[in-house]
Amino acid sequence: MIRVLIVDDSAVVRKVLSEQLARAQDIEVVGTAANPYVARDKIVKLKPDVVTLDVEMPRMDGLTFLARLMKHHPMPVIVVSSLTAAGSEAAVRALQLGAVEVMCKPGPAYSVGDVATHLIDRIRAAAHVRPRAATTDRSAPVGAGVLGSIRTTDKVLAIGASTGGTEAIKRVLSALPAQTPGTVIAQHMPAQFTRAFAQRLNDHSAMEVREAQGGEILRPGLALVAPGNYHLLVSRNGAQYVASVKDGPAVFHQRPSVEVLFNAVAKHAGVNAVGVLLTGMGADGAKGLRTLREAGAHTIAQDEATCVVYGMPKEAVKLGAAEAVLPLDRIPAAILEAFGARRPAAAHTV
C-alpha cells in the first residue's frame, strides 16, 4: 500500500480527495492536515510515502513548508494547486523546490473524476521517486564555440520529459548558449501552468523561451514550450521550420505528447535534428525517439542514475532508440557536439 497524507486548508478538498483516492486498492490515505504545522506532526507520526500539498494556505504557505520539508525530510510531494495566476506561478516554483508534480484542483476546468484519475497515477509514480532538494545554481553555457563554425538555422532541437522534467529541462537549457538551434519542448503539465513554466525557463536561459502559440518560425536562440492540453508539431515551409499547436486525441494519455512532437521533427527535420528524452514515467516519446534515430537524427536519453523517474528513457533504451545514454549534466555538451558534427542520413545502430 502507498501511504498518502493530504495537506489542504479546504475541508471540502480534503474530503473529496480522500474519497477519490480510496477507489484505488493500492493507495491508503493515512491522514489529512489543514495546515503545514499539523502536516509536520503527522508526517513524523504517520510516515506517509507521498504527500499532496496545496500551495495557498494560511499561517504558513505551502512553498515555505515545502522548502523546509525538502531540506530536513525529503520525500515525494505532489502539489495540487488552484488555477489562478498566483497559483500557477507558485506551483512552478514548487517544482524548483523539489515537488515531483503539479496538478490542478477539481473545479470548472477539471472535474473531480479527471483530477482523481491523474492524481492516482501520479501518486503511484511518486512512490518510486528519488526525492531531490532544490537546485539553485545557474549553469554557465557550455561549448558555445562549437556553434560558431556551423549553420544553425536549419537545425532543430527537440526535448521531451514528464515527471521530474521541469528541473531537468531547466538545467539543460541553462547550460546552452544563446545561439542554440531552434528548440521545441514537450513537458507533461496542465494547461494553466505551462506559461509560467516557460517564463521560468526564460529567466534561467540564455535563449528566449516562451509558450508556443503556433505559427512561430524556429530560429537559433528561440525555444518553444508546448502549451498544456495541446500537441506541439514542427513542419517545413521552404528553408524554414514552423511550429504549430493542435488539439486532438491524447497519445500515451498525454497532450502534449512527446511522441507527437518527435514524429513531426523526424518527418520534417530528420538528419538536421537532435532529440533528447529526459526523466518521466510511462513510455511517451520512446518510439518517437527511435523514429528520430531512424531518420538520421542524433538521439540522447537521460541515464537512470540522474532520472527522477526512469520510465520514458528506459523504454527508449530498450527499443534501441538512444544513440547516447548520458547523465543529465553531460547532455548539454552532447547536444552541442551533435550539432557540430556532420551526420549521415542513414540510420545508426549501436
Question: Can you characterise this structure?
Answer:
The protein is elongated. It has 350 residues and is α/β, with parallel strands linked by helices. Helix 4 (85-97) packs across helix 7 (191-203) and helix 8 (258-268) packs parallel to helix 9. Helix 9 (286-294) links the parallel strand 12 and strand 13 (298-302). The protein has helices at residues 11-21, 36-46, 62-72, 85-97, 112-126, 165-174, 191-203, 258-268, 286-294, 312-318, 331-340, and strands spanning 2-7, 27-33, 50-53, 77-81, 101-104, 156-161, 182-187, 208-211, 222-225, 231-237, 240-246, 273-277, 298-302, 324-326. It folds into 2 domains: 2-126, Rossmann fold (3-Layer(aba) Sandwich), CATH 3.40.50; 144-340, Rossmann fold (3-Layer(aba) Sandwich), CATH 3.40.50.180. Helix content is 35%, strand content 21%.
The amount of beta strand, in percent, is 15-25%
Summarize the main sheet: 7 strands, parallel
Q: Name the CATH superfamily classification of the largest domain.
A: Methylesterase CheB, C-terminal domain
Task: State the share of residues found in helices, binned by percent.
Answer: 25-40%
**Rg calc:** 20 Å
In summary, what is this structure?
The protein contains 11 helices and 14 strands. By secondary structure, it is an alpha/beta fold.
Keywords summarizing the entry:
350 residues, alpha/beta, Rossmann fold, 2 domains, five-stranded parallel β-sheet, 11 helices, 35% helix, disordered C terminus
Secondary-structure blueprint of this entry?
Layout: E1 2-7, H1 11-21, E2 27-33, H2 36-46, E3 50-53, H3 62-72, E4 77-81, H4 85-97, E5 101-104, H5 112-126, E6 156-161, H6 165-174, E7 182-187, H7 191-203, E8 208-211, E9 222-225, E10 231-237, E11 240-246, H8 258-268, E12 273-277, H9 286-294, E13 298-302, H10 312-318, E14 324-326, H11 331-340
Parallel strand pairs: 1-2, 1-3, 3-4, 4-5, 6-7, 6-12, 7-9, 8-9, 12-13, 13-14
Antiparallel strand pairs: 10-11
